[in-house]
């Protein structure tokens, strides 16, 4: 099993990429990645968890709760937790699987980064099962001669100015499973999604590109994905926000989770097979015209 997690930036040329190992909250190790033009990202080894992604101007693009605990075994609230080998409660494991509360390590000899990405700074993190993990989920993610099945999500918390001003394009008219209605299947009606109450939906067989438009910030996130057919959209709204110890009462107004995922049809790997699930996020000015879902073209021409 292989999972790729790359946050691209606008860097175009020269100075060598850098990544530093630093101490983060509560002494936990984190990787800091910087691109030549100033954008940066932080990834905690705990959970293989991206906790920060800043643009060239230093503005934070991901949401992390002011109440996030950074205390194992609790998963960090915000950023991009990795839900593996189980999404949500779709199985017998703990909610969202265990990858988000295990310690990952840096792969010292990573495979080459794909040439079609603009990103120059990157790190490959690896998670291998411990003996304890093998007891609850007896599958090796690497060389076990047996097929195994899992579900997955890059549980991405985007930072938005005001949830009531946000629109999501690319999911309209699709079927979804509604976690708020016993995972029953419905069809999304109408236009782009907007938000005025709690939402917890798994959109099925979605396009590979989804746009999240933040009118107030004049910013559009473009989420591109491969190997991950579904997309989860989650906002806890006021009541659930109040019920979560690691989430501020009003913080639901400033976040939206849009998660590249494989939930409806679990993935089965046979011996020797590899699976890649890739999510790429870009942030572009909202002068970007919806329908023209090619952030690289927008970036290059701006
Ligand atoms: O509190 P957790 O375990 O991080 O999960 C947060 C949410 O994650 C979302 O992806 C799920 O669809 C929700 O049902 C869930 O409430």
From TrEMBL:
- Transmembrane annotation, as ranges: none
Question: Which chemical reaction does it catalyze?
Answer: alpha-D-glucose 6-phosphate = beta-D-glucose 6-phosphate
Supply the Pfam families for this chain.
Aldose_epim
Stretches of the chain forming a coiled coil according to its record: none
Q: What class of enzyme is it?
A: isomerase
Determine the domain of life of the protein's source: Eukaryota
Identify the keywords attached in UniProt to this record, alphabetized.
Isomerase
Could you tell me one molecular function GO term of this UniProt entry?
carbohydrate binding
UniProt: substrate binding residues:
77, 95, 100
State which Enzyme Commission number(s) the record gives. 5.1.3.15
Q: Which family does it belong to?
A: Belongs to the glucose-6-phosphate 1-epimerase family.
Name listed for the protein in its UniProt record: glucose-6-phosphate 1-epimerase
């Amino acid at each position: 099993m292989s999972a790729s997690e790359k946050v691209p930036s606008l860097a175009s040329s020269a100075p060598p990429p850098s990544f530093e190992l630093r101490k983060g909250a509560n002494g936990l190790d984190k990787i800091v990645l910087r691109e030549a033009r100033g954008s940066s990202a932080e990834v905690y080894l705990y959970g293989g968890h991206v906790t920060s992604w800043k643009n060239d101007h230093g503005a934070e693009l991901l949401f992390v709760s002011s109440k996030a605990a950074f205390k194992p075994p609790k998963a960090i609230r915000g950023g991009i937790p990795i839900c593996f080998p189980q999404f949500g409660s779709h199985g017998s494991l703990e909610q969202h699987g265990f990858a988000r509360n295990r310690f990952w390590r840096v792969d010292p000899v990573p495979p080459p980064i794909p040439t079609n990405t603009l990103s120059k700074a990157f790190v490959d993190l690896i998670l291998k099962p411990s003996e304890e993990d093998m007891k609850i989920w007896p599958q090796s993610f690497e060389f076990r001669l047996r097929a195994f099945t899992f579900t997955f999500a890059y549980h991405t918390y985007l930072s938005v100015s005001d949830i009531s001003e946000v629109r999501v394009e690319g999911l309209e008219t699709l079927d979804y499973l509604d976690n708020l209605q016993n995972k029953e299947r419905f069809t999304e009606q109408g236009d782009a999604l907007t938000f005025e109450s709690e939402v917890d939906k798994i959109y099925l067989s979605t396009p590979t590109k989804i746009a999240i438009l933040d009118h107030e910030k004049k910013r559009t996130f473009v989420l591109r994905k491969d190997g991950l057919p579904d997309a989860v959209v989650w906002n806890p709204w006021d009541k659930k926000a109040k019920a979560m110890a690691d989430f501020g009462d009003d913080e639901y107004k400033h976040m939206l989770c849009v998660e590249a995922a494989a939930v409806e049809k679990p993935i089965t790997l046979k011996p020797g097979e590899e699976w890649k699930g890739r999510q790429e996020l870009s942030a572009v000015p909202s002068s970007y015209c919806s329908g023209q879902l090619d952030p690289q073209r927008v970036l290059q021409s701006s």
